[in-house]
Amino acid sequence: MASDTLSRLDFGRRDEPQPEPDLRASLLGWLGYQRHEFQRKWRDLTPEQLAEWSVPPVELSVVGLIRHIQQMEHSYLSWGLGGGERVEAYGDDDYAGGSADTVEDDLRLYLDEIVRADAAIAEFPRSTARGSVMASRSATR
Fold first, then answer.
1. Which residues pair with 53 in a beta bridge?
2. Closest by alpha carbon to 47, among 94, 4, 14?
3. What 3-state class would DSSP assign to 61?
4. Which of 16, 46, 50, 118 is buried most deeply by CB count within 10 Å?
């Protein structure tokens, strides 16, 4: 059984992004590249394979990694930059859990989080000075 969500993803190769003076563009380019490479790893997997533990009895599967990355995108980007309500979709043990039956929902939640994260980045103040956000934060302490 192929996943509907997986069948709509682009699994083509991409080159690493080139550095740009616009730090936001560089961040989005690098995130886009890393997200795409992470997604390419799923290209030949069925939902059952996504949910299979790689080294039993360790509760780690590809869908567990997808759940973890979704929560990291949320914590560090969507909520971290954009504020609003912090939601831990899977709780503390995000690596565990998931099954072939949850793959579609887990993929959709992860891909939706990317959209929210990119929107939060787009709203963040623009700067071309490297380290300027951190420098301005430390100057106010």
1. 61
2. 4
3. strand
4. 50
